[in-house]
Design goal:
By secondary structure, the chain is mainly alpha-helical. The chain has 6 helices and 4 strands, in the order αααβββαααβ. 71% of the residues lie in helices and 6% in strands.
């Protein structure tokens, strides 16, 4: 269905780019960032492992439904774009361009300036919503399906963010990310 250039890019070069960015980001993170006192190796490994264990069956499902090339393109573009966007907000916050800044305290493997689980997590939500919307609204236009996927993603983010920021109130452990409130102008 796709020409060999797209297949080659999606199945060979995107995974290599993803791995390269992940390895370099992880090395840079641990060589330039001081570990927070609340950092827990056990929690970081657990969260990364759970993310990867959730990812595997979803990637298999995605590959069966969309084909390997489309599944690869969806996974890597969603993960790279969302982790890159999240990283941009972190950096802009640290530069005081965006107001209050935040930083992540949990995660063993890093992608740009965020834990790998952030990009993987966004792919998980995007694919689940894509699949559900495609099943429930199968006769709807592509624009309607895209709008609904985006709306569900936004609503999920609005629901998850407050609970994750206050994760420590539930389990007594460190938070996944920490806000660094700034004072007014």
């Amino acid at each position: 269905m796709y020409n060999s250039r797209i297949n080659n890019f999606a199945l060979r070069y995107l995974p290599l780019l993803f791995i390269f960015i992940t390895v370099i980001s992880t090395i840079v993170h641990y060589t330039t960032t001081e570990l927070k006192s609340s950092f827990s190796l056990k929690n970081s490994i657990s969260i990364d492992l759970i993310s990867i264990l959730l990812l595997i069956p979803l990637l298999i499902h995605c590959s069966k439904k969309l084909g390997k090339t489309r599944a690869s393109l969806l996974f890597f573009t969603a993960s790279i774009f969302m982790a890159g966007l999240e990283s941009l907000w972190v950096i802009l916050g640290k530069l005081k361009i965006l107001g209050d800044s935040y930083d992540y305290g949990v995660g063993l493997i890093w992608f740009f300036d965020v834990p790998l689980m952030i990009g993987i997590g966004w792919f998980l939500w995007i694919y689940v919503y894509y699949y559900l919307v495609s099943q429930v609204f199968s006769k709807s236009s592509l624009l309607t399906k895209s709008f609904l996927c985006g709306l569900f993603g936004l609503l999920t983010d609005l629901w998850i963010d407050p609970s994750v920021v206050n994760y420590h109130l539930v389990n007594g452990a460190e938070t996944i990310w920490e806000w660094q409130a700034t004072t007014g102008p």
